Amino acid sequence: MKQSKKGLSNWLLLLGVVVLAVAPLVLIKAEFSGADGQAEDAIKEIQPEYKPWFNPLVELPSGEVESLLFSVQAAAGAGVIGYVIGLYKGRSQHQRNKE
User: Fold this and answer.
1) What is the DSSP letter of 1?
2) By CB atoms within 10 Å of each CB, which of 10, 57, 61, 81 scores lowest?
């Protein structure tokens, strides 16, 4: 009986996380844009003759490619963090078993 309650609690927590993540996207009818574009618009509004110091090294063909690269970067970072956490957890368990 205890195991089924724990499983139900886990599913309810997962459902709550999904609702918290999706609710703002559904309830708020706004166009989401990147901070870079907003900053560029604000700078042009304040000082129209502003010229950027640098140009991008690579022009990506579309926003989808940019999103893909950002997602790959986020996944790689999460993988590194997960590896480090697992490494330290394994070391501590090995140390406890050794003692």
Assistant:
1) -
2) 57
Please write the tens of the pLDDT for every residue from 28-55: 877 766 787 788 889 999 999 988 888 8
Q: Which two tokens stand for residue 35?
A: 């901070």
Each residue's pLDDT tens digit, 6-24: 778 899 999 999 999 888 8
Domain span at residue 30? 2-35+61-98
Q: Is residue 47 part of a domain?
A: no
Q: How far apart are CA 1 and CA 94, in angstroms?
A: 33
- Give the separation between CA 79 and CA 86, rounded to whole angstroms: 10
